[in-house]
Amino acid sequence: MTDLTLGAREVPLGGLRGLTVHRTLPQRGFPTVGAWCFVDHFGPSSDPMIVLPHPHTGLQTVTWPLAGEIRHRDSLGSEVVLRPGELNLMTSGDGVSHSEFSVGDPDVPMHGLQLWVALPADARRGPAEFEHHPDLPVVTGEGWSATILLGEVAGAVSPATTYTPIVGAEMRVRPGFVQVPLREGFEHAILAVDGPVTVDGEDIAHREMRYLGPGRTEVGLQVRDETTLLLIGGEPFDEELVMWWNFVGRSHEDIADARADWEAGSARFGHVDGHGTQVIPAPPLPDVRLSPRRRSVT
Predict the structure, then answer these.
(1) What is the pTM assigned to this prediction?
(2) What's the rounded Cα separation, in Å, for the pair 234 and 60?
(3) Binding-site residue ranges
């Protein structure tokens, strides 16, 4: 597949009272980069993050704040205040629920990234898990540095659990031209987090994402000012995914069953302490049969 630029669309997070996020993945005709199936960039914003308990299936949530603090609670009993430079990784397996609320200094703007990784068939029905990683490896090159969220970059390996060959890293790039190593068998994408960037000669605007097809061993980046970028990638994910609301499955029935279980208060999703009976209700299913998202952009 050839390289292409993906724009972002604005979406309210957790309802109309919450943050507005800029979503670059999934898009119509372009559902995944490796196993990454969802990329939200939120802030900088003075609006609070207010996300009541809600469910997930078939995925991992990856939460990476750049500014501000987030309290995570989940149905496993986890309660963590997540700060910049720390990673939360929640594996839903067959079902989990969680909430996320901004805390700390209200004058500090919320800014960060939330991503999903699709679980492969042999892991998507497994048990739910939660990991908090306060210290992650950092690798440096000429004109750049990378904090490794998942996977490996230039020999530095994250301790976070993965189920497919994958990489995710926050990159800091200094002014000028730099070259960053890539894994040849992976496809990759680079998100312009806080300013524009030139990726192999293509100008990418703030909040846009540049997709890079497999076969590369490096990528050339150029910025005017020191800039934060997100690098994601992995082996092309060849399993068909049905994605709807907060669920990732393989069929319409997977999604319908998960929705019914959530609405019924099933033990499948447990209970998140600290919110009483408040949860985010599932929206109605569409009047058509849900079908797998397939890549049609070439």
Answers:
(1) 0.96
(2) 15
(3) 54, 56, 98, 100
Backbone angles phi, psi at 269, to 5 degrees: -105, -5
Is residue 282 a contact partner of residue 262, using CB atoms and an 8 Å limit?
yes
Residue carrying structure tokens 């149905």: 75
Query: How is residue 123 written in tokens?
Result: 């892991």
Question: Cβ distance 74 to 130 under 8 Å?
Answer: yes
pLDDT tens for 259-285 read 999 999 999 999 999 999 999 999 999
DSSP for 209-229?
A: EEEE-TT-SEEEEEESS-EEE
Q: Note whether 269 and 262 are within 8 A (CB).
A: yes
How many C-beta atoms lie closer than 10 Å to residue 284's C-beta? 7
What is the four-CA torsion angle of 20, 22, 27, 31, rounded to 10 degrees? -100
Say how far apart CA 130 and CA 142 lie, in whole Å. 35
Rounded Cα distance, 124 and 94, in Å: 6
Please tell me whether residue 81 adopts helix, strand or coil conformation.
strand
Annotated binding-site positions for Fe cation? 54, 56, 98, 100
CA dihedral angle for residue 153, residue 229, residue 203, residue 209, rounded to 10 degrees: 90
pLDDT per residue as tens digits for the range 15-57: 545 678 999 999 999 999 999 999 999 999 998 899 999 999 9
Please state the separation of Cα 23 from the chain's center in Å.
10
User: Candidates 2.60.120.10, 3.60.15.10, 3.40.640.10, 1.20.1260.10; correct CATH number of 4-234?
Assistant: 2.60.120.10
Q: Which amino acid is at 209?
A: M
Give the position of tokens 């009541």. 52
